[in-house]
Automatic annotation (TrEMBL):
InterPro entries per UniProt: Aldose_1/G6P_1-epimerase, Gal_mutarotase_sf_dom, GH-type_carb-bd
One Pfam family cited in the UniProt record for this chain: Aldose_epim
Gene3D superfamilies for the chain: 2.70.98.10
Name this polypeptide is given: Glucose-6-phosphate 1-epimerase
């Protein structure tokens, strides 16, 4: 199915005062280069998705709205995203950087993306009560442009979550 020898490792470390750190490493153990894409499908709890504010380095960057058929590509007109309808958006080449989720009832969460990650995916199945859409958002750190991993090479991506509860 996958004709290359590789290793994927993920480290998760809970820090006392600085949050939760994750590192994802892809190692090419083969003698040929390969390319891949990767995303952390991170779901974050919120009190009410309608009140949630998502901030990131989006303004002017490529935004793909995958709810359109075919998907619509435009430049983002703001650094702020609010969920009020079914949402599946990809913001390209916005990372490394910080995305902040602010919930008036819970506080804020900083998603600090370091090396490796380039893109952000925001998803919520708004209106799907059976999925509990009101209480979560997916804000994914992603590498959706294929990454080339050279023979015996590695690729690392880091993310830190820092909560500021209310």
């Amino acid at each position: 199915m996958w004709p290359y020898a590789f290793r994927l490792t993920m480290w998760v470390e809970l820090k006392d005062d600085t949050g939760l750190d994750t590192t994802v490493r892809v190692e090419n153990l083969s003698d040929k280069p390969f390319d891949f894409t990767l995303a952390l499908h991170s779901y974050y709890s919120c009190s009410k998705v309608d009140d949630l504010v998502i901030e990131g380095p989006f303004l002017g960057k490529s935004r793909m709205d995958k709810t359109e058929n075919p998907p619509a590509i435009s430049a983002a007109t703001s650094d702020v995203v609010k969920i009020g309808a079914f949402t599946e958006e990809i913001y390209s080449n916005v990372l490394p950087g910080i995305c902040r989720l602010t919930d008036p009832a819970k506080g804020s969460l900083d998603i600090i993306n370091g090396s490796g990650w380039k893109d952000v995916v925001i998803w919520n199945p708004y209106g799907e009560t059976g999925m509990g859409y009101e209480g979560f958002v997916c804000c994914e750190s992603a590498g959706l442009t294929p990454v080339v991993c050279e023979p015996k090479g590695t690729w690392d991506a880091t993310m830190r979550l820092v909560a500021s509860p209310k």
